[in-house]
């Protein structure tokens, strides 16, 4: 991979990613963290924390994540990214599936569909569907 701010050099990329989960009764916490070679990776660090609580409708949750942009790639509106989410994971069909409505706030690190460098935010309403197939 080409080294940021020195196109005459290349380096291999490397990284580490870890997940920690804890649950006690109706409460659960999930933490994810990652590091990558900041000389060649735009996203050099990542940290996310989510909290879930079992309710009578399903699992309600809140999460926040931050993606850290490597110093060599900053500029022109590119900055750390933030993502915050609130969701409710509702079991369907006896628990074989889930439907999860969510609301996310995203602070964009500098890109949009035009390919131009911009810095913006978005509020995203979504629905995820999950189905488990077992034999």
Architecture overview:
- By secondary structure, this protein is mainly beta.
- The N and C termini lie far apart (43 Å).
- The mean pLDDT is 88.
- It has strands at 2-3, 6-10, 15-24, 27-36, 43-54, 59-69, 81-92, 97-107, 121-131.
- The strands form two sheets. Strands 3-4-5-6-7-8-9 form a seven-stranded antiparallel sheet, with no helix packed on it. Strands 1-2 form a two-stranded antiparallel sheet.
What proportion of the residues form beta strands (DSSP E)? over 45%
Q: What distance separates the N and C termini?
A: 43 Å
Characterize the overall form.
elongated
SS-derived structural category: mainly beta
Main sheet: strands, sense, barrel? 7 strands, antiparallel
The SSE string, one letter per element, is: EEEEEEEEE
**Which stretches are poorly predicted, pLDDT < 50 over at least 5 residues?**
none
Strand order of the largest sheet: 3-4-5-6-7-8-9
The count of strands amounts to 9
Radius of gyration, whole Å: 18 Å
Q: Please count the helical segments.
A: 0
Overall mean pLDDT stands at 88
Helix percent band: under 10%
Give the gist of this structure.
The chain is an all-beta fold. It has no helices and 9 strands.
Question: What are the SSEs and their pairings?
Answer:
Blueprint: E1 2-3, E2 6-10, E3 15-24, E4 27-36, E5 43-54, E6 59-69, E7 81-92, E8 97-107, E9 121-131
